[in-house]
Amino acid sequence: MIRRLSRVLGAPYARPLRMHLAGLIVYAILQGLAFVLIVPVLRPLLRGDVDAALPWVAVLAGTVVACAAAYWIQAQLGYRLGTALSQALHHRIGDHLAALPLGWFTPARVGRVARMSSTGVVDIMGVPAHLLAPLVTSYVTPAVVVFAMIFLDWRLAVATLVAVPLVILVFRWTARLFAATDHAVDAAGVEAANRVVEFAQNQAVLRAHGRSDFDQLEAALLEQRAAGRKQLLRAVPGLAAAGLVVQALVTIVLITGVYLATSGPTVDAAALIALLVLTVRFAEPLMAAAELGAAVRMAGNSLARVDELLATPVLPEPATAGTFTTPGTIELDGVGFGYDSRPVLRDVSLRVPARSVTALVGASGSGKTTVVRLVARFFDTRTGVVRVGGADVRDLTTEQLMSQISVVFQDVYLFDAGIADNIRAGRADATDAEVAAAAALARVDEIADRLPDGYDTRVGEGGARLSGGERQRISIARAILKDAPIVLLDEATAALDQDNEAAITAALTALSRDRTLLVIAHRLRTVQSADQIVVLADGGVAESGTHEELLLRNGQYAHFWNERSRARGWRLTPA
Ligand SMILES: Nc1ncnc2c1ncn2[C@@H]1O[C@H](COP(=O)(O)OP(=O)(O)OP(=O)(O)O)[C@@H](O)[C@H]1O
């Protein structure tokens, strides 16, 4: 666990972790020594020789003080280390998330990351903060006393040592019992947490269907309970046996001591008292050690999940920045891609010239969104090349690629901040005047005018206080402010009221002026007026051309157009 923690956090933390462990061992040894020192203190006292005991009392007092100091230092260190670890883990997770391909972020994974960075990190920081100390002392302190006992009274040492292999065996057995069900308990916990989030997020759908229950959550909670119960049932024999063996150890020491004391004056009474004090003092912690081991293993599981996340490959970044040979262009050349083994795109080639509008159309599931995601490098292609500004996107740094592209998707996410702050997310150093100009072009000024605090009105979490159309206008203002040469747009499918519709049309016209636009088009007007229409079907480009050219060709597009524009169906909504 410590080794893995050191590896995950890197060199700066490996040393403090090792130091903390060493400090704990020193503290445990000092504690053991304090027990052992009872012997030279008691020996003269039992003979009635107080003077001879005094120097040893001083040594004992010194050891106790040193022990208390060591305890204080290691407790401080452990707590500080725990807090620092939590911070470092959050940074490591955050840095890695920032470098992962955008396509990695599915809701289930986001749920897992949330759990990992909350309870998972708390579990992990608990190890140095408060689990390691009792675990180390419950093993090391008795070991020191038993070792010293070899020199004080070997028979008492033997009596203790016979039980040690048994203790070790039983503890390992208990650990194995816990470990066998750890994975199931853990997986059930993750599943239940994800389902709770899903339940909360889908309240609108559930209520619309008159449902207050959610079978999947119910099932996940039952599974979690069953997994916990199964673990307990399987581990109980081990825990009981551990308790029994520790009790047996105490009894063996007691019986041996009493036997030696009663069968003649051969036993060292002081050593016996020290050993008895130790066995009584450590019986309980030793029994608890089996359970503490389980908590440490749970933390180990959380750490393994963090490790797994950190091992998820990030998008490889080139060492040196690429060069744009044809700024503002997009090109897909023989692109093949699939989210899993099923190919979504087989061989897509298309070219979007600078400052032109290309409309992507095709049946639902034909891969329009996938094409746009590949241009923004949410994923890397399996075959073929995606070029932006003439450069292979894999040769561009994320910063370079993102400087070329603005993305306006349907599921616009706004931060719970003011309208102006949300627009400024497009370009952090924009002046107020620039923000206002972008807002005016995207007709956001109309929204700000009717809100109580104007541009400073907070939009609520995710922009909840605004309508879908209003959110999209803010996102268009963001893109206008960013002023990237290429705009990737997923046109809204939802029907908008007339005002919003007109405002968005005006905003999009402003956005596409002098820019390259690749749009997943749903409105007839957008498709009709595009410089180029690309029809996707069967994982490839079925046909491409202008509206007139494609109608003349009388192929798939003409067929769709005639059929669906009459029925106002397909994926095109009338302007
Ligand atoms: N994240 C994902 N994981 C797995 N499969 C996916 C994922 N996203 C899309 N797909 C699948 O890839 C195929 C193409 O989806 P895509 O969203 O690109 O189509 P689309 O043409 O944009 O569809 P629509 O018009 O309905 O939005 C679909 O079969 C879809 O189920």
Describe what you observe in this structure:
It is found in: Cell membrane. Keywords: ATP-binding, Membrane, Nucleotide-binding, Transmembrane, Transmembrane helix. Pfam families: ABC_membrane (PF00664), ABC_tran (PF00005). It is a multi-pass membrane protein. It comes from Actinoplanes couchii. 66% of the residues lie in helices and 10% in strands. A six-stranded mixed sheet has the order 6-7-8-3-9-10, sandwiched between helices. Strands 2-1-4-5 form a four-stranded antiparallel sheet, with helices on one face. It folds into two domains: 310 residues, Up-down Bundle (ABC transporter transmembrane region fold); 238 residues, P-loop containing nucleotide triphosphate hydrolases (Rossmann fold). The C terminus is likely disordered. The chain contains 19 helices and ten strands. It has 575 residues and is of the alpha/beta class. The site of adenosine-5'-triphosphate has 11 residues, from helix 10.
| Helical segment count | 19
Uncertain regions: pLDDT < 50 for 5+ in a row? 569-575
> Could you say which structural class the secondary elements and strand pairing correspond to?
alpha/beta
Largest sheet: 6 strands, mixed
Instruction: Assign the CATH class of the largest domain.
Output: Mainly Alpha
How many individual β-strands? 10
**Topology pattern, helix = H, strand = E:** HHHHHHHHHEEEHEEHEHHHHEHEHEEHH
Q: List the ions, cofactors and other small molecules found in this model.
A: adenosine-5'-triphosphate
Strand order of the largest sheet: 6-7-8-3-9-10
Distance between the termini: 62 Å
- Number of domain units: 2
| Helix content range | 55-70%
Shape: elongated
Here the CATH topology of the largest domain equals ABC transporter transmembrane region fold
**CATH architectural designation of the largest domain:** Up-down Bundle
Hey, roughly how much beta strand do the residues contain?
5-15%
The CATH superfamily of the largest domain bears the name: ABC transporter type 1, transmembrane domain
Mean pLDDT: 84
- What would you report as the Rg, rounded to the nearest angstrom? 35 Å
Subcellular location: Cell membrane
Organism: Actinoplanes couchii
Keywords: ATP-binding, Membrane, Nucleotide-binding, Transmembrane, Transmembrane helix
Protein name: ABC transporter
